[in-house]
Design a protein that fits this description.
By secondary structure, the chain is an alpha/beta fold. It has one domain (11-155): Alpha/beta knot, CATH 3.40.1280. The protein is 31% helix and 17% strand. A 7-stranded parallel β-sheet has the order 3-2-1-6-4-7-5. Helix 1 (20-33) links the parallel strand 1 and strand 2 (36-40). It starts with 10 loop residues before the first strand and ends with a helix.
Length: 159
Amino acid sequence: MSGAAPRGGLHVILVEPEIPPNTGNIARLCAATRTALHLVHPLGFSVDDRHLRRAGLDYWPHVTVHHHDNLATALAASGDGPVCLFSARHGAPYDQAPYRPGTRLVFGPETRGLPAALLEQNPHQCYRIPIWGEVRSLNLSAAAAVVVYEGYRQIGGCW
């Protein structure tokens, strides 16, 4: 499950994703934008899960997927670009993140988000997508799409 991601693109890091269709949709997003996808274990599903594969079956060969045991190893393996932690309620608006080639976009598990301690220890790296309606949060794959396309818009397109 890996394809060639161009040098200097963005990195999407999913910490302990739980819902197969979300990860499949994000993999499709990564294939469409040539963005590297990093999956931090444990995953809430098998990568062979039929729902995960169905969400992006014909795209998986075109996604650069990296598996990591924890967030620290994912960050170490994904380069030295800025780290942006995304939260439903903490931080500056997502369009103020320091997008540039190599930026690492970190998203937490669907049901609990990134750990509060991580967000509290890194307040200047936290970003959110504003929500005006009466919902707790956006779907993870929708949030990733908003952020990835904003990142590429700011740095001048896909690599």
